[in-house]
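Q: what does this look like with magnesium ion bound?
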Amino acid sequence: MRLFLQLLFRNRLAGFGAVVLGVIVVLAVLTPILPLHPPNETNTANRFLRPLSEGHWLGTDHLGRDLMSRLMWGTRLSLAVGFAAALFAGLAGAAIGVLAGYFGGRIDNVTMRGIDMLMAFPYILLALAIVAVLGPGLMNALIAVAVVNIPFFARNIRGVTAGIVHREFVDAARLSGMGNARILWSEVLPNVVPVIVIAMSTTIGWMILETAGLSFLGLGSQPPQADLGSMLGEARSALITAPHTSIVPGAMILLIVMSVNLLGDGVRDALDPRLRSGAPSRPEATTRVERATAPEATESGLLRLDRLETQFRIGKRVYRAVNGVSLNLSPGECVGLIGESGSGKSVTALSVMGLVASPPGVITGGAVRLDGQDLIGAPYEMLRALRGRRVAYIFQDPLSTLHPLYRIGDQLAEAITAHQPVGRAAARARAVRLLEDVRIPNPAARARAFPHELSGGMRQRVGIAMALANDPDIIIADEPTTALDVTVQAQVLALLDELRRSRGLAILFITHDFGVVSQLCDRVAVMYGGRVVEEGPTTDLLAAPAHPYTRRLIACVPELGGGRRRLAAIPGLPPAVDDLPPGCAFAPRCERAQDACRAGEIALAGKVRKVRCLFPETTP
Ligand code: ADP
Ligand code: MG
């Protein structure tokens, strides 16, 4: 709740709306005890008094009634009717929508066709027809406005519910033996309530306007009772001679609707968890850079990361996800980047092409040089030309990176035409050849398949094919085999290895599995808490790990036929990167750690074999 209010008021306009609406609501609630003239007391001697007249602050209307008093009572009524109509329409519409979406089938068909019939009539005409049948009056206007708004809620909520019902957690609830009522209450409703609140908060303004409209036409509140719409309606004939009688209720309607809408937008943004970290703003095209100076260029290589630092800034917290990572990738080389989940591998990889989402991501230091050219802070157009063309990515879960509604052949062709001036037919033909290159059987037919029609291993092959589409020099593979079973993993690794040799690709291979590294990588860098703690040729490093963390990570890999031994998990948890200890981040979990380890920065020492440890297991 506190977080919600904090988020709400961080949005200035929403805060403004909340304050204005709050003042209006408080005044409306207090109206009966305020020292006002009776709202319906006529005094024809005092007709059309101007504002700021003696005893009548806002003047009087055509019957000499005090406008201030009528405004307050009218606001009270209009607010009450608007909120009641929104509540009624929201609850009724949501109930219909949830039931239709949850049960589907015939219930869905019958209710939704009923709703469609309501929607087939023009909105205001339907409201007028309902009032015509029920007779004029404020209560009937309320019912009319509520009824015509039910379809909006019902359709919205049905869509959301239908999307939730087929999700795994609902299946899980069903499997655990819950009944429909329990599932609706504890699984579906909590997911739907924010949507209902959001829909309501953004439609209250409308409903107030619509009721005012009906009253304006004389179908809502009946004389002498004042609401904002009927005040406007009565003032219409004196619009020129006594404009204040129209302006006063008009301005109030404007204030209410504007503040309700501003507040409604704020509520929507604050309730949407996806907007939490970055407030309501679109991620920037490339990662934001706040770097004092770039480090001096040393030797050149294909891809050199030089003391790269990437942080996430969320509120006052700073998550130091990458803390000065240096890596070197030569043509045709495969470098492994290994570490526990959360050690900063993905953020390192994404920083290379400026793909970390900003906000909250910021690159605060270091350089990434491709052929000697610094990419940090490079213009978006330049990065875009390089993305996929010279540096391509393969991600962990191909099902979520492939577009579900396009055929894979078309997606591959699109990747090709993004960088190369070839026609559609040529791109298609290349796509089929790419599928063949990654050993997909019957590629011409498979190119017409949708992602969901392929198995996990095949989808990952498509991901690899897409990365190869523009003959890149470098492929950054972020745990590409983690979602696959071991046999498919072996096939995919063999494929990558072969492609690397035949095309001279450099690969940065991210994984948490030393078994995978040993099959594929020439060199390996071990990451912990956003830092490289050890680096070296794979065989050397595997044979004699120097950092205690590396040794324990290697001990986690089971070995087939390696005899009976306990798999050694590493005790404790990886460090929280918003609160890194001084010195070695692994010290709290390390049995060799001494006071010196916790004192201060420890350098990555060594030339070919590097280790960031004061008391290494072996001296490389
Ligand atoms: P991994 O090594 O598993 O790939 P990541 O590079 O994804 O780890 O994450 C490194 C650290 O950065 C983690 O501690 C994670 O909590 C943090 N992090 C990643 N993305 C965000 C984000 N959008 N906001 C805040 N922290 C993040
Ligand atoms: Mg990752």
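The longest helix spans residues 67-103. The pocket of adenosine-5'-diphosphate (ligand 1) is lined by residues 277, 312, 314, 319, 321, 339, 341-347, 360, 577 (CB under 6 Å).
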